[in-house]
Amino acid sequence: MSTIDFTETYYIDRRGSYSRKWDGEHLKFSRTDLLPLWVADMDFMPPQCIQEAICTYVKAQPLGYTMTNPKYLEAVIDWYKRRHNCILSKDWLTSAPNVITGLMWCIGAFTKAKDAIAILTPVYGAFDTSASDAQRQIIAVPMSRDEDNRYSVDYDAFEKAIIKHNVTLFIHCNPHNPVGHVWTEDEMNQLFSICERHGVLIISDEIHQDLITGPITFMPALSVSNDAYADNILSMSSLSKSFNMASLHHAEVIIPNEKLRSQYNAFKGLVYHTDSDVIAEAAITVAYTNPEAEAWLTDVLAVIRENYEYLCRELCTALPQIRISPMDGTYLAWIDFGAYVKAEDMHDLFENKCRIAPSFGEWFGGENYATFVRLNLATSLENIKTATHNIIKYVLP
Question: How many angstroms separate the Cα of 259 from the Cα of each of 74, 204, 347?
Fold first, then answer.
């Protein structure tokens, strides 16, 4: 399907639907008449086969107490094997209502108050707030940015921070939100070997694993160096990003280590008592097994890539000193306006002049990123054209 046909078929005007992104601008911004490019969900309906699977289940079955459906487990295992060359055992699979809740449960299960947790910044702000809300110390290790606007890790600084602060947990993000970096096996091997040397547990948030838009192949953390670190990793993902179903509260938590898995499930049992989410399981099973859903994913990635290339082409032509990071994964553009805009003027520029609601850079690591924005490209090309035109119009001196 062409990008034009896909957009005509699946794009939906979400304003008035209680969408957090479209109707919740008052939660973060000074006005409510902005083009919203902030919350990381899509403006596209999910594949028709998934819609039908949900409707079929609701029509055919009562929504009573249930057990985990083996077909759902088989679908997840098959998807990981087929899409990511990662072999899972069904015994490794547990769950959480979403990845961030799973992350918070891991913090509760494996750390104690005042323990130190390492992150690589800039990074999704919920990593920081999840830890600080739990009264843990956040040890932020800033990544370096090269002339091509790619981010990398200073491994010596990472190791020194772990030693200095006696870090017990590292939260890894792959692909990395917001910079769009897909970690290579060599990069993860260096990070994970440092963690192994110092007894640091690894949580790998891989919620964007299916949204690969560049040349680097996604590798699950569990597969690095022939599964060498799998015994020390808790991996998490969800179809909420891949197929735009964040309202279905379900995430896979994959824990090969039986002791860690038991510890996680014991903590989960203290704070969460429920049976399987049958609607989510029905949706996931179809998403991971129906060719129509996989074709939809291929098509939506083409739309996202087209939007990214248009944005880059127009902004870099009009604003040659702008800095846009390569988007190898996610559907999120990470843009530095520091050559043109002062940090203190960013909110006024975007909200009152450009009339755009972005995710502001400081949400991902503080004032060091105050001249950045993250823009959600999982929308129509027309919306991206409007945003790009407004940015050029009001940023140009």
Answer: 23, 18, 47
69: Cβ–Cβ under 8 A, 6 or more apart, which residues?
A: 276, 278, 281, 282, 285
Spatial separation of the C-alpha atoms in residues 171 and 100, rounded to whole Å: 11
As given in the structure block, the two tokens for residue 4 are 């034009």
Find the mean pLDDT for residues 88-100. Answer: 95
Q: For the stretch 148-187, what's the b/e string if a residue is b when 16 or more beta carbons lie within 10 angstroms of its beta carbon?
A: ebebebeeeebbebbeeeebbbbbbbbbbbbbbbbbeeeb
Of 86, 1, 12, 56, the closest CA to residue 292 belongs to 1
How far apart CA 39 and CA 58 sit, in angstroms, is 29
Burial of 283 (0-12, 13-18, 19+ CB in 10 A): buried
- For 290-306, the three-class secondary structure string (H helix, E strand, C coil) is CHHHHHHHHHHHHHHHH
pTM above 0.85, yes or no: yes
Residue that the structure tokens 């609701």 belong to: 58
Residue range 235-242: average pLDDT? 94
